[in-house]
Amino acid sequence: VGNSQVLTCTRKSNVAMVTWKINPKVGGPCTLGYRADQNKTDRTNCSDSMNWKFRPDRDPALEIRQVGIAHEGNYTCEVVATDGNFHDVYYLTVLVPPRLTLYCDDHGNPVCEAAAGKPAAQVLWVLGSNFTPEEEGHDNGTVTVLSRLTAYGTNLTNTTCIVSHPAGNQSKSIAC
What we know:
15 strands; single chain; 2 domains; 4-stranded antiparallel β-sheet; disulfide bond; 5-stranded antiparallel β-sheet
């Protein structure tokens, strides 16, 4: 999320037409088209964040700027050339790194929160095995994972929470 993504498309000489057909999971479909005989591009229902990376007659790659969760979905590039029709199909999955927060609750137990990640993060504790992770799903497809380490009267001088996620791992330590 937040980065730019370029989806490549088959490069051919003698291209007659190139079409990107985009079907996101959220919102309606959009298309980007190019006709060589008129040297004309056209767009239907596409946001400004999606456009040709370069000139479509030279390189038909699609660039998505500031990728968001709404961009997740199917992307198909169709190239019509003198030597045939060519298709490139992608499914764009958007990863959202969670926000890591570590604090002590009212009972002196460390609580680790991996907020609004996509997919849900895995929360683990260094030198701690008695914890209960809870997941809360959000409307935008992200998930918050909350894990409370129960010490049962043991004084945890320094506890480390590790958050494992496809967008990157994080860790924080705290003394409660």
